[in-house]
Amino acid sequence: MRNVHKRFGSQVVLDNISITIEPGKTTAVVGPSGVGKSVLLKLIMGIMTPDSGDIWIGDDKITAAHSESQKNAIRQQLGVLFQSAALFDSLTIYDNIAFPLLERLRLSSIRAHKKVLAIAESLSLTEYLQNYPEQVSIGIRKRVGMARALITEPKVLLVDEPNTGLDPLDGQEVYDLINACKNQWGFTGLVISHELPEVFQVSERVAMILQGKIIAEGTPSEMIASADPAVQQFLNGRTDGPIKIQ
Amino acid sequence: MFLYRTLIALIRPPYRPYLYLQQLLQIGVNSTLVIALIGLFTGAVLAVQGEYTLSKFGATAYTGPAVALSLIRELGPVLTALMVIGRAGSAVTAELGIMRITEQIDALRSMAVDPIKYLMAPRLAAGLIAMPLLCGMFNVVGIFGGYLVGVGLLGLSPGTFMSQIMSATGVVDVWSGFIKALVFGLIFGWVSCYKGYTCGFGAQGVNKATTQSVVTASVAVLIVDYFLTSVLTRVFME
Question: Nearest CB to B113: which of A45, A84, A104?
Fold first, then answer.
């Protein structure tokens, strides 16, 4: 993305943000709550439109797509794991995982069935397939969300706050899952998080957003060694420093 | 714009008949019991009131037509619409609102599935199909309720009751009620889907959207009913 600018009324949420993610690599975008990380994700998905700037997914510029059908063509390259997994509660876990195959790719139910069983096996979900989302733990729901995001073998995986609502063990399991999926499917990833340093486990690069701008960017080890007081305050979870608690 | 996009989505492939059947079941079939019950007692009340009023003019023989015309032309479509809005409209808005705040609608869009086509079009179509059918059922059960009270309790002649209905009720009356029910079905689908789709944040957002949906749709039905009655009466009289 290049020079992306987004404001809501008089509040500037993203101010000339530019990030490039190399194919096959994962970048984590971190920052305190309410700095516009989720807005960034929605801009990439084409659910929101930036006031200015361009966003590419591969060679396709989603900011140049004006109709929903044009955006949908580009969205085919995306898989998204939402903060709460965003599973459809009227569908079983099997139907949730099969959903993008049947509704987006229009595969036959026989072909979809094989793929669902295969990914359920890979992510240890086989025993939950006939359950509804409310009948399983949030950790399992995240795994189902990951299965749904990856079943179409997207080029790009977007992950929004992977640890929200999870205890440390379940949280670690989600990071292990992201790493395992990266090794197996080899996608380009963007992870939105405020969990430091946990998110470093899954990312080759990290960008920190504060007051609408990227204030620091680098590898996880460069971020840890950063002299920026805001980065250090955020990394160490201190209340005193340049980041004001809202 | 929202209604236009939903109507276009209704026409364009891919078609998902199972979604339409599912909504017809939820909005239409699941409303039949309450509609039948309301229809039965509305017809019964109309028979009592009609017989009382007409007896002052020595015209109790016209109780049947009074019941039938009131139901078919006016009360059938309006009361059916208000009941369906209260029962199913609030449910549609709350369901869509919860889908909005739990990011399920965003998830649909991220999967390149158009939520207007997947969620709104089946509900609008179900409203358009179910409302006239429920209204027809309301009328039939209502006339039956009027018959039970008029003939069974008030001692009116069964032959007179039915024959007067047959002679006083024309195709135009049925058309008038059908057109109203169709328009009210459109209002139901449009308002309940729009309010759910544009729901605000959190539980309060869903609460507000659901209340607004029921109030807006109910008021719209009553206002549109006045204008429709005026126009249809003039058109059919000519």
Answer: A104
